[in-house]
Amino acid sequence: MELTVQDSIYWIKFANERIQSEKEYLTSLDQAIGDSDHGINMARGFQQSVNKISDGSYVHVSDVFKDVAMTMMSKVGGASGPLYGTAFLRLSSAVKEKNPLDHKVFVEGLEDALNGIKQRGKANKGEKTMVDVWEPVVTLLNKNNEVTAEEIVNTAKEAMEHTKKLVATKGRASYFKEKSIGHIDPGSASSFYLFESLAKVWKSGGQA
Q1: Residue-range domain boundaries for the chain
Q2: Is the CB of residue 76 less than 8 Å from the CB of residue 84?
Q3: Cβ-proximal residues to 208 (8 Å cutoff; 6+ apart), any chain
Q4: Domain 5-204 falls in which CATH fold?
Q5: pLDDT at 208
C-alpha cells in the first residue's frame, strides 16, 4: 500500500465523516468517565482539518499531516487536541518530503506518532487511553507488509473494546478508578474511527 497526497486527504475526510456521525456516541462515552466534550472536540477538530486541507494544493503528504496537526492543536480543547496534534506532527516530520509513502515509511511514521502520543500523554498500553488502539495497530502493520483492510479494522475494534476491561490511570477518567471498568475509553473509540478510515482508503486503493 502506497499513501499518496490524495490518499492522505481521503483518510482525514473519511475520518471526519465517521466522527461527525458518531459525535453523540463519543460524547456519551466521555460523559461516563470524562469531561463530556470528546465528541464535540473531535467533530470540531476533524471538520476544521478537512476545511483546511481541502483548500490546499499539496505536493507532499507530510504537508497534509502538518496542517492537520496545526489545526488540531489550535482548534481542539482538552487533552485530545494536543494528543492528536502531536501524533500528526510527529507523523509529518517522519515522512517529510516523501511522496508517495511506501508501507515501510508510513509505518515508521505511525510508530513515531505513537511515541509522540505516549510522551505527550505520559501513557502506555493498558492504561485505558488512545494508546491502547494505536499500539496494536502499529504492531500489526510493523509485522506484515501485506496487511488487509479487514485486519486493520478488526485489530483496532478489538483493542477499543478491550478498554472496557481496563482501569483508567490517566486523565480525567483516572478519578473514577475501578468505576471506569465497563466503559470504552473515548480516545480509543475516536482512534478506532481513524484507523477504520485508513482501512477504507487501504481497501479502496485511494478511490473516494
Answers
A1: 5-204
A2: yes
A3: 10, 13
A4: 1.25.40
A5: 45
